[in-house]
Amino acid sequence: MDILKILSRGTKPNPKNQTAKGSAAAVAATAKLPSAGAVPHPQLFNDPVSSSSRGKKRKRKNKSGDKDAEDDGPENDDEDDLSDVNFFAPPKPRTEAVQQHNEEDGEDQKKKKNKKRKVKTLDEDECKQILRSHRLKFTLLSESVGGVAELEARAVGEKKEKKKKSKEGGEEEGKEKGPKKGKLAQLWPQPLTAFGQLKYDYGINQTLADNITRQGFKVPTEVQMGALPLLLQPGTALGDKEMEKGVDFLAVAPTGSGKTITFLIPAIEGVLKARGEVNEGGEVKNELRAIVVAPTRELASQIVNEGRKLAIGTGVRVVLMKRGLRLQAEGRAEKAEEDSDSENEEEKPEEAEHVQGEDEEDKEDSDEEDGDDKKKDQKEKPLARVDILVTTPKILLNFLSDDGKLTNSKRTLPTVRSLILDEADVLLDPIFRKQTMAIWKSCVHPDVALTCWSATMASNIEALVTKHLSKRAKHFNISRPLIRLVVGLKDTAVPNVTHKLIYTATEQGKLLALRQLLHPASSSDSGPPLRPPFIVFTQTIDRAKALHKELQFDIPLEAGGQARIAVLHSSLSDQIRSKIMTKFRTGEVWVLITTDVLARGVDFAGVNGVVNYDVPTSAAGYVHRAGRTGRAGREGGVAVTFYTKEDIPFVKSVANVIAASEKQAGKAGSGEESVKKWLLDALPKVAKEDKRKLKVRGVEARRAGGKEASITTQSSWERRKENNKRQAIEASKKRKRMALQAEKQGGGKKKDDDGEEWGGLDD
Ligand SMILES: Nc1ncnc2c1ncn2[C@@H]1O[C@H](COP(=O)(O)OP(=O)(O)OP(=O)(O)O)[C@@H](O)[C@H]1O
After folding, report:
1. What distance in angstroms lies between residue 262's CA and the mean position of ligand 1's atoms?
2. Short name of one Pfam family for this protein (predicted)?
């Protein structure tokens, strides 16, 4: 079979090369792939829910509870009504849209002064029905303080009422689980059922609303449905004026479910609102209002891009933190409230791919500038005009502390009102914890709201957030609820991806199996099991490099050859990393070999598959890697995981995620499962300590020096021969160098030239 056809990202097969039947099959198969480019339906869940209010025509209420209130906005889940307001109409030329917006805004300003917007809300049963159907669960996590106590009491009272009803024999309500002692209160805020509501019910800025429309998003994803009302107008969403001051928020939602715009929209709206309020007093202040922290540079720049798309024409500046950027900051006047509390932060930052990325960044930057020049430069640079700053932890900490020390920052960021942690579980993991906590401490305004986002959130991370928030609440004497939203079932899963777990006896067998994914065994019309573009994950930088070396000539010249396959890891320069990212995004590169540096957050919409060449080191690791495909509800994504006997002790957590994903996808018991029950039962459980070690260090055998660390198809005899030859050449060079040195200097200090590159987890 023609390799071009195999690897091509195009969706139209060449009719000359195919039979009619085969062609049709191939088209059908390809049309389902994420790379087909079809606009997906981004919602993952829409279960039928039995409810007393089902089938009832929805009536909207205004804030005062008036159901017959005049409906001057769109009926949110009805397309006809949307066409009335023309929210999803094709985008107007930018200048026209902006001009119109400016005029409207002028009008709006005048109207706002005279009349407060009437927000129309759904009644509680309707909220429950929608939230349940989309598997959205809100829980109040924080302790009872101030307004929160009221909220909690209401939620608990509701449950008691339900229990009473069920005892009395209420059929529908009787199916509800009664409250258990010590159970956290569940909340039922207003959901967002259409993007049109953002403008008409939640009053967001017109240009921001236009920019959302321009992106072509038709319906909100579950996390957008649940989080946007709560973050934009918590008082309205929760039906409690007290809450208008804001909430702290944890969102756990599947990979690729659109969390990025969910935190960016309220951040941008927050800036615009603050400007509007200041404007009324006649003074426009440009100040840093929000910080988004992400664990890798790739993710941070992606967030900046997304932010800039949403902020077009609003004047809101979304900026990527760079060395030398001067922010509006103040010297730290007093010790932060949490300084005494460091029991959880004793551990040194672990060596990890993410961290290494940051270290490398510093090294590169410091190479660019000489020490003294750098200081002079810093002083002379004007303050950057930034509204929303996107950063990796260490680069911001470098600015805050001058020396990048992890304990206490010297500067504070007094104007920041919103701290957003994307991939919060990794940012609050010991790997980044000290850095993230130091940034949090530097946000000294009492109103700073924290929002945390990830597809995975361990309970110890939630506990850490709760503890520190309650300390801040005491310190600043504030009361703000911490609310958690979980989308989907409790088990971490990647439901819209096909999972394959493949055992190979040896490392060489793995390489052969990977080649089979690249090349079809026969010239069947269905093509190879995995169609490019795809991402291959390895455990360490050295293994990524070695795998790249091994595969780089596998794609024939006429199909683009070596240029089609690339490797990306944190020891590459920033420029090279971003070039490779662009090439993969534009389709020039078909196979991207990488490490966990790209496992989280990075969004390549058309990735057809993920190969775990090395088993991920945790269940969360698997979720994030597998989640690089099947983005925004796209179907047809495949995640293939190879394992050898070295991995058997650790493969259970991956197998569990696969089983949970297949259960959520309705495959359980269908015979289609890739992890059979007998295998799940047979796999050994991983001890807690082993899990911890594995997460930090990976499978020992694959680390540098381990027997299985290298990737090659050479036999051990060939490898030994090559090694001997290489060592003999190196020894001879060394002898010559030493002789030359001795001759020149008469025996000066020998320079250490054996410095090996640090590669990934431990190499
Ligand atoms: N409502 C929507 N409809 C269609 N596509 C959407 C919608 N919202 C976001 N998207 C798209 O979905 C893709 C994934 O979004 P995003 O990167 O924010 O996911 P995520 O939830 O942050 O994933 P991860 O957990 O992997 O970081 C992006 O390409 C984004 O443009």
Report:
1. 9
2. Helicase_C
Number of the ligand 1 atom closest to the C-alpha atom of 624: 26
Which residue has a Cα nearest atom 12 of ligand 1?
632
Contact status, residue 458 vs residue 619, Cβ threshold 8 Å: no
Question: Of 9-13, 159-163, 530-534, where does the model show the most confidence?
Answer: 530-534
The predicted-structure confidence for 331-378, as pLDDT tens digits, reads as follows 764 444 444 443 333 333 333 444 333 333 333 333 333 444 445 555
SS3 state at 418: strand
Which among 35, 215, 486, 603 is the best mutation to test ligand 1's pocket, defined by most ligand atoms within 8 Å of the CB?
603
Kindly tell me the burial class for residue 90, based on how many C-beta atoms sit within 10 Å of its own C-beta (0-12, 13-18, 19 or more): exposed
Q: Which pair of structure tokens corresponds to residue 584?
A: 């993969």
Start-to-end CA distance of the chain, whole Å, equals: 39
CA 377 to chain centre: 34
Burial state string for 194-216 with b = 16 or more CB within 10 A and e = fewer than 16: bbbbbbbbbbbbbbbbbbbbbee
Q: What pLDDT is stored for residue 155 in this prediction? A: 57
pLDDT at 529: 65
Query: Distance from the CA of 522 to the center of ligand 1, in angstroms?
Result: 36
Of the candidate ranges 245-249, 595-599, 690-694, the one whose mean pLDDT is the lowest: 690-694
* pLDDT digits 0-9 by tens, 646-657: 888 889 989 999
Query: Whole-prediction pTM value?
Result: 0.76
Q: Are 609 and 636 in contact (CB under 8 A)?
A: no
Please give the average per-residue pLDDT across 648-668, as a whole number.
87
Phi, psi of 419 (to 5 degrees): -110, 120
Q: Tokens 């179907």: give the residue.
A: 635
Kindly report the protein residue whose alpha carbon is nearest to atom 1 of ligand 1: 220
E-state strands within 141-245 = 186-187
pLDDT mean over 420-427: 97
Q: Is the pLDDT of residue 442 over 90?
A: yes
Q: How far apart are CA 535 and CA 611, in angstroms?
A: 6
ipTM: 0.99
Distances (CA, A) of 24 to 14, 318, 520, 525, 567: 11, 46, 19, 9, 35
Instruction: Mean pLDDT check: name the lowest of 221-225, 492-496, 531-535.
Output: 492-496
**Polymer length in residues for the chain:** 763
Q: How confident is the model at residue 418 (pLDDT cuts 50, 70, 90)?
A: very high
Say whether 140 sits in a helix, a strand or coil: strand
Q: Is the CB of 601 under 6 A from ligand 1?
A: yes
CA of 85 to the centre of ligand 1 (A): 25
Question: Distance from the CA of 602 to the center of ligand 1, in angstroms?
Answer: 10
Pocket test for ligand 1, best of 77, 198, 213, 221 (most atoms within 8 A of CB): 221
38 C-beta closer than 6 A to ligand 1: no
* Pairwise CA distance, residues 464 & 341, whole Å: 11
Query: Does 606 sit in the ligand 1 pocket, CB within 6 Å?
Result: no
**pLDDT computed for residue 348 by the predictor:** 35
Q: Which atom of ligand 1 is least distant from the CA of 195?
A: 1
Which H, E and C letters describe 8-22, residue by residue? CCCCCCCHHHCCHHH
| Atom nearest to 215 CA in ligand 1 | 31
